Amino acid sequence: MVEGPNTRYNMKKLTALLFLSMLVVFAGCKKKEKKESNTNTTATKGAKGATKKNTPAEGAKTGVPVQLFVMSQCPYGLMAEGMMDLVLDLVGKHVNFRLEYIVDETPGGGFNSLHGAPEVEGNIIQLCVQSIAPAKLMDFIKCHNENPRALGTTWKSCAQRAKVDAAALKTCKEGEQGKQLLRASAKIAKDLKVEGSPTFFIGGQKYDGPPSPRKIVDKICEGIKGAKPADCTAPAAVGYFITDKRCEKCKQYARLLAAISNIAPGAKMTTLDYSDAKAKDLMKTAEIKMLPVIIFEKSILKDKLAMRIFKPIMKQVGSLHKLMEPAAIFDPTAEICDNKIDDDNNGKIDCDDATCKEAMACRKEQKKRLDVFVMSQCPYGAAALISMKAVIDNFKKDIDFHVNYIANKTASGFDSLHGQPEVDENIRQLCAVKHYPKDYKYMDYLVCRSKDYQNPTWKPCAKDGIDVKVIEKCVKEEGVKLLEENIKLGHALKVSGSPTWLANNRFKFQGIDAELIKTEYCKHNEKLAGCKNKLSAESKVKGSCGGK
After folding, report:
1. Rounded Cα–Cα distance for residues 426 and 424 (Å)
2. Is CATH 3.40.50.2000 what the domain over 369-546 is classified as, yes or no?
3. pLDDT tens digits for 297-339?
4. What is the H or E stretch that residue 402 is in?
5. Burial of residue 366, with CB atoms counted within 10 A of its CB: 0-12 exposed, 13-18 middle, 19 or more buried
6. Distance in angstroms (rounded) separating the CA atoms of residues 444 and 237
7. Helix-then-strand count for the chain, H and E
8. Of 222-226, 330-334, 340-344, 430-434, which has the strongest mean pLDDT?
9. DSSP category for residue 257
10. Is the pLDDT of residue 42 over 70?
11. What topology does CATH give the domain 26-209?
């Protein structure tokens, strides 16, 4: 939740669009102890007694009361806060907004939170800002959420950026005031039986509708008494989703249409195939080469909320406005390598066409070879590498295993989904691969790091024959070249998800646990002795980082 030749980096733009639209219902962070929920509870009823002064209706600002219950280190809560920033930008003058926090108070006067003590501290800091400078809260939150794992250390710089009195904030967060604020907020959450981050209450009622910025705005607008402001309505935009029926993978991006309906309701979207003359004309006018793509007419400019979301990924070409190729996975003028048609009219069909050299359908099969494509700080990729150790031990010399990393070369270095620490670890792991290949000795280091992939301290994993100095020298002298060369295969195959597997240089599959990896490998390497063995049970870790 993908750029250049590697689709994963263009998908960053798509991911931003989908996250901001909140098309998918939040998975949410929930307290460990589940309690009976009550979706009909009202804020005024649940926040009675000592906490009544903290309810939106009792605040200094008038307007529709909106409460957002979060945990300061819950990623879904952070997404909801980003969404509320959009909502408040549009109808904030009609809203009385408060953040509340989900924690449990302990007998000794302390607090327990799902993500530990740092989250408790983050909750207190943010509540103090809400108390000291409520008008600056969202500016502070945006800064604070840039590094949610370090909420306790970034408060001072964020206070400076948001123009919050740092001295007053320090006094609040370190004194009894901060604890009292969190205690009161926790009681509101408890009285309302709020268990999950994020949870919305709008107008005193729990909101269970679609968590998209447009739907939240609509719900707030329902609660505005008297004449509705102009921002509660948006004119219908006209747009086009251009795809190609020959592109199977393009079909998954049709969900963008659903996202747009949550952002720009009433938008008149028309789906066009590349074979349609109008599609070709629009692509030529908008200077588009890759599909699928979304193009709007100038009517989109009148929708303020849509423009807040689309503007960073939109480019104007004449009177048209295109989303900047959020998928960009299919060239409709290029040869398709497995349809027995000369698509580019150069006299060469499928694998005979030079452009199909690296296509999956045209790759030469290499028996007993297994490649994995991972990001070293992706939890799913890390789990897959741990499982792979058992697969190697099972097949021994009946497997030729290769590790490939998913990253993108830039003018200044490399871009990776989990930032520079992941780039650095990719390089260290490649150095282990180069210098300790015998009997897959390097896997000792990879597995050790994968078990604690977020720990910046790597040297304890360079042990039992793997030399720290060898790794350090390799990183310094040849690390960049190793990674630059290593990522080429992933780019050529347009691999975007960690982990992704390639059996025999031709057959792609997904999976994490050892038994599944073994089974998929054996589909293309039958009668190997190791295929008869039962490996680990299904892994508890599921999913992937990036695309597929």
Report:
1. 5
2. no
3. 999 998 888 888 888 888 999 999 998 755 568 889 988 888 8
4. strand 400-405
5. middle
6. 56
7. 18, 21
8. 430-434
9. H
10. no
11. Glutaredoxin (3.40.30)
